[in-house]
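HUMAN: I'm a chemist; might I ask for a sequence paired with its structure tokens?

ASSISTANT:
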Amino acid sequence: MSFPALSRPAAGPALAAARGAPVLQMAHVSASYGARAVLHDASLAVSAGEIMVLLGPNGAGKTTLIRAVCGRLRPDHGTICVKGHAAHLSEARRRIGLVPQELALYPSLTVRENLDIFARLAGMPSAGIAGRVGAVIEAAGVGARANERIDRLSGGWKRRANIAAALVGEPALLVLDEPTVGVDREALAGFADLLRTLAAAGLAVLIVTHDLEQAAAVADRVAILVNGHVALEGPMHDLVARRFGGARRVELRWSHPPDGDTRAHLAALALRNDATGTIYTGGLAAG
């Protein structure tokens, strides 16, 4: 995808108008390592212009799911397609930009030099590399640090540079594994804005994490992976209602106040916040 003079959208989930056809389609996928089953009948879809957050505790199968989506593990059963191509085929893999949990950058090179290398590794014609690198620098918001070495950047800037590297190959699907590790609180809001901007430009975004706060801040939809199976899926406010609908009382805590849309959904559930705006409590009627 290209990034022509992207404008930053208002805070909140990615713009619905930008959403298009499914980019990632995973249907009834099961996978195992020897006799140990890791994924079981897992189904998931992510559309163009959408941010999907996959939540799950350690051991739920999140890493295996990422490997399967990126074509690095063939499932035992089921299908995974990216833009209509089976995930293990090169046609699908070149449409995926993977942002791993560990930084995948050359620490002694600058941001721009890293992007130049990744463009060449992606097989981009030499004549188009400078233009593409410039567009990605602007899209990822790393212009202020483009000529600085990676090992001299803060955690937040390193994460942005890691995302930029994944964008060089013009992916249709951006997959991020625990992307906020090492990002300080001050950088988190800008990070969420970046992902919304990319989604608003038409990119399909899949974030894999155990961080519920991050999901509430940025997700259009959330899926919860439990023992290798997608147990719940939908908008965050719907999941809260479905999961806690029969509870007499619920308490939700954030480290910082949630965004406006999330606050509105919580208010609709009759959950009241405390003076800090980070703790919501109340009773929920049976549903």
Observations:
- Confidence is low (pLDDT under 50) at residues 3-18.
- The radius of gyration is 19 Å.
- The first helix runs from residue 62 to 69.
- The longest strand covers residues 22-33.
